[in-house]
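User: Structure with biotinyl-5-AMP, C-alpha cells only please.
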Amino acid sequence: MTTDAQILTALRAADAGGVSGAELSQRFGISRAAIWARIEELRMLGYDISASPHLGYRLVSAPDLLHADDLTARLGKTKVVGRDLRVFQETTSTNDVIEKLARDGVKEGVVVFAETQTKGRGRLGRKWASPARNGLWFSVLLRPDLRPQEATRLTVAAATALARAIRRVARVTPQIKWPNDILIGGKKVVGILTEMSAELDRVRHVILGIGVDVNLNAGDFPAELRKLATSLKIESGAAVDRAELAAVILRELDADYARVIGGRFAAVADEWEAQCLTLGRNVTVDLGGRRIQGYAESLDEDGTLLIRTQHGRLERIIGGDVTLEK
Ligand code: BT5
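Assistant:
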C-alpha cells in the first residue's frame, strides 16, 4: 500500500475522532513533516482534511473523483479483486488496458478504472457511452481455473454482485436481464462485457468490463439512448458517492468470484434467479442471423440460458440479444 493509501485508511478508520501526526508518523515510519506534506497533496486533490492540536487530522469530506489510493483505503482487504487498483483519467477502453496487462503476465485481481473512455465498447463492437466523471467504467482481470464453457458463470456472478451493491448503496431495486444487463424500471443502468482468452479446455484469462451509469442526468446520455438508459441518480433521486459504490461493488465481486471458483456457483445462480427479469417469460433471442423464440425456463450450471421452444425442444443459449415478450 502507498503512504497515501495508508494515511487515508487511518483517517477513515479514525472516523470522526481524528488521528495525530505523531501517531501516523510512528505507524508508517516516516517523519511528521512527510505526513504533513502528504496531507497537503491530498488537500490539493480536494480532500478536506482538518487539523487541530487536540484531534489531530480528520477527514471531513472526499472529492467526487476516483483516486486509486482512496479506493484501496475504502476497499480494505479482499481475496483477489482490487488487490491492485489503477485509475486513468482517460483511456480508449479499460478492457484494452487490462488486455495488455494480462499479456504482460499481471496477477489476477487487478482493476482499472477510467474517468472517461474514448472507445468504450459493448458486445459485437457496439459503442458504450462513457461520459467523464459521472459513471463507473472499469475492468477486472481474472484467471479462473474454469473450462471456457463455464466462463458465463462469471458474467452471472458479476451481475449478482452488482445488483447487491446497487441495492445497498443507491437503495433502488435493480433487475437482471440475461446475460449482461442490469435494468431499473425497464431501462439499462449497467452493462457487462466479458472477454475471454482460452485454450481448448482451459480459460487463460477473463476480462470483466463493467459500465455503471451512476450520476448521469438525462442530458448526459446520447440522444438515441435516452429512452433506453437511465442512471442511479435519476432513479434514486440523489447523487451517489461513486467511490463508495466502487468499493462496495469490488467487495461484492470478490465475494462472488470466491463463490464461483470455490464450487458454490449454485448459490450465486439462486440469487441471480431471484432478481432475474428473463426467466419465466416468453422471449426472442437474436443470435445474429438466427432467432429463437420460446419460454426462458432456467439457467444451467454453466450460466447458460435454457429456452423451451414451441416445439418442446430445449435450446442452450450462451450469447445473443434477448427481447422480452409482453
Ligand atoms: C454491454 O454491451 O452492455 C456491455 C457494456 C460494457 C461497458 C464497459 S465500460 C468498462 C469496460 N470498457 C469497455 O470498453 N466496455 C466495458 P451490449 O449488451 O452490447 O450493449 C451495448 C448497447 O448498450 C449499446 O448499443 C447501446 O444501445 C447501449 N448503451 C451504450 N452506452 C450506454 C450507457 N452508458 N448506458 C446504458 N446503455 C448504453
